[in-house]
Amino acid sequence: xxxxxxxxxxxxxxxxxxxxxxxxxxxxxxxxxxxxxxxxxxxxxxxxxxxxxxxxxxxxxxxxxxxxxxxxxxxxxxxxxxxxxxxxxxxxxxxxxxxxxxxxxxxxxxxxxxxxxxxxxxxxxxxxxxxxxxxxxxxxxxxxxxxxxxxxxxxxxxxxxxxxxxxxxxxxxxxxxxxxxxxxxxxxxxxxxxxxxxxxxxxxxxxxxxxxxxxxxxxxxxxxxxxxxxxxxxxxxxxxxxxxxxxxxxxxxxxxxxxxxxxxxxxxxxxxxxxxxxxxxxxxxxxxxxxxxxxxxxxxxxxxxxxxxxxxxxxxxxxxxxxxxxxxxxxxxxxxxxxxxxxxxxxxxxxxxxxxxxxxxxxxxxxxxxxxxxxxxxxxxxxxxxxxxxxxxxxxxxxxxxxxxxxxxxxxxxxxxxxxxxxxxxxxxxxxxxxxxxxxxxxxxxxxxxxxxxxxxxxxxxxxxxxxxxxxxxxxxxxxxxxxxxxxxxxxxxxxxxxxxxxxxxxxxxxxxxxxxxxxxxxxxxxxxxxxxxxxxxxxxxxxxxxxxxxxxxxxxxxxxxxxxxxxxxxxxxxxxxxxxxxxxxxxxxxxxxxxxxxxxxxxxxxxxxxxxxxxxxxxxxxxxxxxxxxxxxxxxxxxxxxxxxxxxxxxxxxxxxxxxxxxxxxxxxxxxxxxxxxxxxxxxxxxxxxxxxxxxxxxxxxxxxxxxxxxxxxxxxxxxxxxxxxxxxxxxxxxxxxxxxxxxxxxxxxxxxxxxxxxxxxxxxxxxxxxxxxxxxxxxxxxxxxxxxxxxxxxxxxxxxxxxxxxxxxxxxxxxxxxxxxxxxxxxxxxxxxxxxxxxxxxxxxxxxxxxxxxxxxxxxxxxxxxxxxxxxxxxxxxxxxxxxxxxxxxxxxxxxxxxxxxxxxxxxxxxxxxxxxxxxxx
Length: 924
Hints:
This protein is mainly β. Helix content is 7%, strand content 47%. It is globular and about 95 Å long.
């Protein structure tokens, strides 16, 4: 630890020079050219440096600058100005509105003070979150980005245990943990949850973007390029940077409502509605309330920006309405999951962003962070008495014990209950640091960012049948993850080297701690001495003491980044990064990116690099044990951690880092001021991706004797593992066309985004013990699991968003096309590849579900009542489009044989149908 601290100090002191040109305060006022009114919240920064500020309520700013510096003044919707100081101490500025302004300055992907979006060496999307949120009923950031960025994808899970309660998105078809998330340029911690049941991205963790309120975010920068050499682990697919608001003396608030009106699949409309729980004609009702306000601190541009957010949404209930076999739109009664749909959730968040320049110095203190709490409630699979009476409370002679409000009876005489999985997701994060300038333009930034996520499971309205009906609520245990990251970054801009050279270097120390804690005894234990009754909390059995884990690791990294304007037209960026993990050793990555201006409005760009993702502590240490009772024989079903004797006996190696190689090439074109076109192709090869294997049984005589013995010695009936199992290649193309035009009081905006991608599985890395037969290979990673990996993003996602505005009125539509996705069902277990019996008895049919491409159409209208109040109404998925039914034609008897046990799988458009929304925004 002492050596690491010494290295921090050395890096900090290296290259510090004595000032050759003392910086002095430069003050001024920024006004709007149209009305001459002062403009608050305008960004003011020194070009080539890290120092910056924003104007106060009177449009005033103060910033330290040398006589030879240039000051960049920018504000969304206005033309950016670059002004020479020339020794002046006061500079007043007038900004001109520019509706066609597409030249946002982006900070992600560069160590310099930022570059115009269309002139970066790698593709970056910029999403105005406030605008995007105001035109939709989608309530969380992940869902909003799914319809705003071309290669960002998100599947709302249902019937997937904890995955129903966490919103994990992906970039460019890779896993949710292969995208790095930053907040104000600092690494965000991931959730403690790891997906293991019923979900795509199985075996992955990631950052839950819904824990950050949209009202706190100024913009989202999405770097669509591998960036491990710049930022470290997880940046294989790219980087998402959430830039928090800095505005002051401005109060904004929003109140919104949304609800699903789906007459096609609402369970209450079914001819067998008495078989299902259901809500009203409009279900999934949600409300959201948020507020944001910024305070000025001191006289040097300091601020404190505060955001509060509350949201609540109800459950949805979706089933096929008709049960007539001859009707192609009908399916039989769904006894597997009677309460199919989304769960409910209630969330409260608080966030802050703060900067305080220290008077008389060139140093600024900053901090940001917040707290989020989310309570979710979702139905698990149904328990039917006729199928499994051992899962119910019964008398000594086997008769059902009725429990009001939990066990229900159907008109055909069945008794059932729907266990409820509840989660409490608590998230807290605080970052703090100092940044400033030393000597002749040596910018430095020293910070610590600490975050903690706790994910706690509970069982509600369920039973441990071996206890009968004495308890219906259980503490099932959970997990907790802490990450603390300290950074020292140093930058120096040499304006006289070539056409400008930016040198960046620094180091990082990260500490991570993962904890998995057991539930209460009743959540997992078998209290039935005969072994007949099912043990544990039905729906989600609790973690057992043998699953509990506490593990930590430390990571140390150092990087160097050179960004050179070789000529006025040619930009080159080169980065190297070395990291050391205490649990698996060193990793080195490099990246080269370049951009060349063919003309002033046409740029070509390309990049090549290597990347990596360290196996998470969640994947290394996750353990889960379920008790299985068959024929009075009790055995355990175990997800074994990587260090378990069972895992070692199976020949599973110690988890190592995923590695990637990526190539990108594209161009940006701005033929007229109102139109921009960007096109970027990419190739990403990933080796040793970590996935969760299938379940291996101790009764399988083809397994190695040592493995069978290890299972039997620990009384484990079946076991599965995390392993570096798959090599994949992603090929894709992103296209963005953006047109803005203002004619008098009329505004025209057309945005087209498209992602075309194709993934292949190049190799499966079978452990020698588990890959000796086709059957064992299929168990290790089945064709079904391969299809889930390939279906993390559709082969095409296209979006067209035309919008028209006149004075205070705006109307817009959004058409989003999600391409075809193919997913396998479970099969009936009689064949190697999944098949199911045909209804007419003619044989087996492949259990394959084809979800054809569909277009989701949104409509929104907004009107600004006055300078302070704006209302918007509309509908997402106004034509009530759903995925194709998920069943095999000719085998309806095996319908619902998919992950959620519902009419369809979780695909990008979702399953809830038409959503209506209304929103009122206030600005004072």
